[in-house]
Every structure is written in C-alpha cells, then in structure tokens.
Write a structure and sequence with these properties.
By secondary structure, the chain is an all-beta fold. It has a single domain, classed as Jelly Rolls (Sandwich), CATH 2.60.120. The chain contains no helices and eight strands. The strands form two sheets. Strands 1-8-3-6 form a four-stranded antiparallel beta sheet, with no helix packed on it.
Length: 114
C-alpha cells in the first residue's frame, strides 16, 4: 500500500498525493492529520480530479474536481481517519486542499488501487 507524507504549505493550492492510474480507482485507506504544532485549526478537503468519459450529451468533457470529504482538525490535535474512508473512491487524482497554509500541519495519506 503506497503512502505519502507532506506538509500543507500551499495556500489555495492543492497538494497532490496519488496519481491517476488507467482503469483503476484510488481507494484511500488512511488519512492522518498532525496539527499538534499548527498555528490555527486546519480545514482540509479531499478532492478527486478526473476527466469524465465522452458521451452523447458531452462529446468533449473537461477536467472535473469533486470534493469527497472535509476534515476539520483543531490546533494542537492529531486525527487519524480510516472508517470514514470506506465508501470513498477516487476516480482520478487524489489531492488535498487546505484552507490556510501551515508548514506545521503534516498530512499522511495511504491508498490502494482497485
């Protein structure tokens, strides 16, 4: 199971974790947010970025971003999420967005492919 740990330093920008794999879904199995040394509460959004298949109604689809989960972590707290992820499937790129950048907010994501 691949995993990646990154700091959430990009304001308004996303932090990419798992790249899209052809004909497979990304299944997040663990998200751990360490905000113990954070300067403020962290609001993190798990996003799915993909291009839908072409259809009669949309012959040229565009890149789509779907928010799959919001995680609120208080300052001086650490949160580990597993059970809440059991129904989440990422069709494309798994990325996280933080409301206010914080170099002391550290996020670890583990995932599998299905």
């Amino acid at each position: 199971m691949p995993s990646l740990t990154q700091t959430m330093v990009a304001v308004g920008l996303v932090t990419q974790f798992a790249a899209e794999k052809p004909n497979a879904k990304v299944i997040p199995s663990l998200i751990m947010v360490n905000n113990v040394l954070g300067a403020q509460d962290a609001i993190i959004t798990v996003q799915d970025v993909f291009t839908p298949a072409a259809s009669n109604g949309t012959p040229a689809p565009v890149l789509t971003t779907q928010n799959r989960l919001n995680i609120n972590v208080s300052m001086a707290a650490c949160v580990s999420i597993r059970d809440e992820l059991k129904d989440i499937e990422i069709l494309g790129l798994l990325q996280l967005l933080i409301g206010v950048a914080d170099a002391n907010c550290i996020v670890t994501v583990a995932w599998d492919f299905e």
